[in-house]
Target: Ankyrin repeat
Amino acid sequence: MAQSIPQNVIDGLRTMLSLGSSNDNETSSSSSSSDLTPVDVVITRIMLTKGRKLPPGVVDVIFDFAEYWAHSSNEVDYIAEHSSPLRVNGQSPSENKFLLRSFPVGLTGIQGKKALAEVLAYDLNEAKPAPLKTEHDASYFSKLADYPTPKLLHPVRKVVFTIRSKDQGWGGEPDNRHTYNGAWTWFEAGLEKFDAEQT
Model:
């Protein structure tokens, strides 16, 4: 059975082959896993399964062990954006503060755009909880991407939160100084789903 390979994957393979056979003295810096695109992952998979004759299941295990996945990152730096850190004071209307909304998981660009932010406008307004009536199926989102998407049932492999914060310094009791014991600061993560009736 013949398999259709997207043109951008073929172009990527040609580029990799031409770089590998060039006799330049320049050293190319290897991409870290943070720079991986979905096309990079597909190209590497093809190279290992076709070129090295590794079974697809073994390649999947290697990718999982090496955490060789395409990914997206979202961050907010309040000091850089507002020239001062974000302060949230307890027992005030702003006690619960919405900090960041990530891009939809798995989308690294849409319709040829490199940055998803150029296409979708995200704000920091907290979504009001509402019952999900009809969830979009995966085919709706896969049509938005112009690159190969994972065929896994559960394509999200890992979620990492890196948070820098500080409390008021100590919780009041002498034994709690220089610790978070006695402090009432915490962070929560939530999952937003797209309702087919609203998008």
